[in-house]
Amino acid sequence: MEPKIQVLPDTIANQIAAGEVIERPAAVLKELLENSLDAGATAIDIAFEQAGISSIVIQDNGCGMTPEDARLSLLRHATSKLKDIKDLEAILSFGFRGEAVPSIASVSRFSLKTRPADRDTGYELEVEGGTVRAQKPCGMPVGTIIAVRDLFYNVPARRKFLKSATTEANHLVNNVRIYALAQPRVAFELKVDGRQNLKLAAANNLLERIAELLGPDVAAQLIPIKGQDADDTVELQLSGFIGHPKFHRTNREGIYCFVNGRPIDSKLMQYALMEAYRGQLPEGRFPWAFLNLDIEPHAVDVNVHPAKREVRFRDEGQLRAQLMHVLSSTLQKALHQELLDSKVFVQAVAKPLTHAHPTASILPKIIPAAAFTPRPNSEPTSRSAISASQGMRPTGTPQIEAREIPQALQGHQLPWRFLTALPPRWLLFQTQSEGLMIVHAKAARERILYEEIMQAMEKRAVKSQMLLVPITFDLPASLKELWEQTQTLWAQFGYVIEPFGKQTYRVLETPPWLDPHSCVAMLETLLSDIHEKKLSAKSDLLWAECARRMAARPQAVSPLSYDTRTA
Among 411, 430, 410, which residue's Cα sits nearest to residue 420? Predict the structure, then answer.
């Protein structure tokens, strides 16, 4: 009787492994990028077409492989990174399982060309669905070229689970950006559908790479961190940059975490970061951060996630406390130094007192009491007998004076009457029923401004304000494609923008509701909303979101006039 349990053929086993590791085109690129970096490449060229489904090609100038090693790389669990179980506890390379290449080759039409420095010619392998179709010598420079075409051609069900072409392409571009930040001394070039999307020369340090990739405006507001902490439990060194609290984002996409140079998604590191910023950021906002944690390999397990996107630390509680200490002290020192360097602070401390008697203005005046003459036949009066109608109020409390209604509003019956402002942020109204109503001034102003903006947008009547001095900004490469797709949208919002270089633009006019200095931050916020919430340029939701964002900007909220208070 034939046994029911069968050993799976290598082709099927590789496709099953691909289901865990290669869930989308970006995962293919990630694995190939890591192989190139492990090979010691200093320059990596990437190109993909049709969101990586049609083709992904990656070329590096790494060490290359001999023909024997090239053939072995197509076998499952064949790796040059591990030789002993102890090596797994000291792993520093990106890859080590030997699953990625055979998994990719099993679900695509795959070709590999490679040449080591000690060989005059290279070697080429062509694989289709996991089966080697051809192998031959070839001419090529030192390094490796891998081409992945027709991804998932033999597993069509996998293609059905992919997102839109735009989403998958964004994941691919984002992967390149992340590894470019993780390895600033490596040059990267990216082409998307034949057009150059990114070209980064090798940088001297992380700050240079941030400025080149994300723009000098981002780099200029970063605070360097370099903290080392050690005890009997965990030895670590944290380096990188965190953003000034004045510059924050609507999402976590500006937070980059690396462990021993490996990009990861770390809830622990993000938690420590947000705790360090507790009380420094508005609710729902996130800082910029580029955190690289150098830690002993034995204190971190990188073999807990199929795609190695997550790691497990040996002593998470101790590590969390150490990271919070380093990040908090770095941020507080920077803010304290900024205060000391502030011209306003220096002038305030150095300014001499001008009052001859500085306490005279704050001491209350003591007025002698008038002589008391009891009323004839007066009797003691209990507290309960005193009526509120007698106008009793504490000494020194100012009278609430009603303001005169402007001429423009006379003749209109208002359901309330403005009485006074209650510092720092409240307004007091009297209602028709002789009651009192307290209104939050900022919230009321934002609502009124929101309605004004929405009406102007609906009527296509947004009037721009021309800037005396145009404002320039650098657009991150990741948003370039989205920017080009929404060019006509910004004019409808009241922006007039023109190109001013390769990745630089110039703002000539801005919406009338915005302070000019906040217009660039507003643009970035709106682009993030379009990207994250998948909002269409013609969507009513986008128009409403734009109006809400503009009204909520601090620079858009001015002190309320009487007309606005009674609106």
Answer: 430
Q: Region 539-553: what's the mean pLDDT? A: 64
Sequence-separated (6 or more) residues with CB below 8 Å from residue 531: 170, 479, 482
Looking at domain 10-203, its CATH superfamily turns out to be Histidine kinase-like ATPase, C-terminal domain (3.30.565.10)
Contacts of 550 (CB under 8 A, 6+ apart): 449, 453, 511, 513, 514, 522, 556
Mean pLDDT estimate for the chain: 78
Which of helix, strand or coil describes residue 272?
helix
What are the beta bridge partners of residue 242? Answer: 223, 289
All CATH 3.30.565.10 domain ranges in the chain, comma separated: 10-203
Architecture of the structural domain at 221-338: 2-Layer Sandwich (3.30)
Residues of the chain within CATH 3.30.1370.100 domain(s) are 442-562
| Number of residues that make up the chain | 567
Higher-confidence residue of 551 and 377: namely 551
Q: Which pTM value belongs to this model?
A: 0.66
- Output the six-digit token pair for 138: 């070839």
Over residues 441-457, the pLDDT tens digits come to 777 777 777 777 777 77
Q: Spelled out in words, what is the top-level CATH class assigned to the domain 442-562?
A: alpha beta
- pLDDT: which is higher, 514 or 439: 439
Contact 235, 295 (CB under 8 A): yes
Compute CA 58 distance to the chain's CA centroid, rounded to the nearest angstrom: 27
